[in-house]
Amino acid sequence: MRSHPLTTPQPLHLFVHPGLCAVSSAAGRHYHVVHELKTMSEAQRHCRENYKDLVTIRDLEDLETLKTLKRPRAWIGLYHYLDNWRWSLPNTSYYKPGETEFRRWSSGQPNNYLNKEHCTLMQNTNGLWNDVMCEKSFFPACFDVRVLYLLLVKSKLR
Ligand SMILES: [Ca+2]
Fold first, then answer.
1. d(CA 29, ligand 1 centre) in Å
2. Which of 79, 75, 57 is nearest to 66 (CA)?
3. Which of 68, 97, 142, 149 is the most buried (most CB within 10 A)?
4. Full-model pTM
5. Rg over CA atoms, the chain
6. Considering its fold, how many domains does the chain have in total?
7. Looking at the domain assignment, is residue 46 inside a domain?
8. Pairing mode, if any, of strands 74-81 and 139-145?
9. Taking every annotated instance into account, which residue ranges of this chain make up the domain C-type lectin (predicted)?
10. Domain assignment present for 125
């Protein structure tokens, strides 16, 4: 039997993770809510070590996908620094123009209560956001970007 390089069997790693997981298969984006209470900086470190980063929400599609996760309140990657809100995932080719500006604040937020609220919590009910103190502990919402490779198999050998 002839072997073709494209038909070499590759193990397909479907991820099984103790955390809750939602998948946006169309875009290859995978969201994970890790069930461990962490401060924002601990959450960021955890996401960067195990996934890509804390979640970035670029548009309504991202938001709706995240909302399908049956999840508790969770940290997302938005934080306030030097008078700007910015995403934990740096501005790279991952974003199209304008996508770093997407926001879904809850009514009256961000209010920077006592001038101490510089990190962003996504509420569990409606997916809207609130700025809270970075030292509080919540579950991290991490995300991954995976590329799916299509395996072409020749069914007919001549
Ligand atoms: Ca607030």
1. 28
2. 57
3. 142
4. 0.78
5. 19
6. 1
7. yes
8. parallel
9. 26-143
10. yes
Cα-to-centroid distance, 138 and ligand 1 (Å): 15
- What are the tokens at 17? 């993770």
Does residue 73 lie in a domain region?
Answer: yes
Distance 110 CA to ligand 1 centre (A): 5
Residue 56 belongs to some domain of the structure: yes
Evaluate the CA torsion angle 52, 40, 92, 27 in order and state its sign.
positive
pLDDT tens, residue by residue, 9-23? 433 333 444 555 555
Helix or strand run (H / E) with residue 74: strand 74-81
| Cα separation, 84 vs 91, whole angstroms | 13
Phi, psi (rounded to 5 degrees) for 59: -165, 180
DSSP at 69: S
CATH, residue 53: 3.10.100.10
Helices (H), the chain: 40-50, 60-67
Mark the residues whose beta carbon lies below 5 A from ion ligand 1.
109, 111, 117, 130-131
Domain hosting 73: range is: 29-145
The residue written with tokens 């969201």 in the block is 31
Which residues pair with residue 29 across a beta bridge? 24, 145
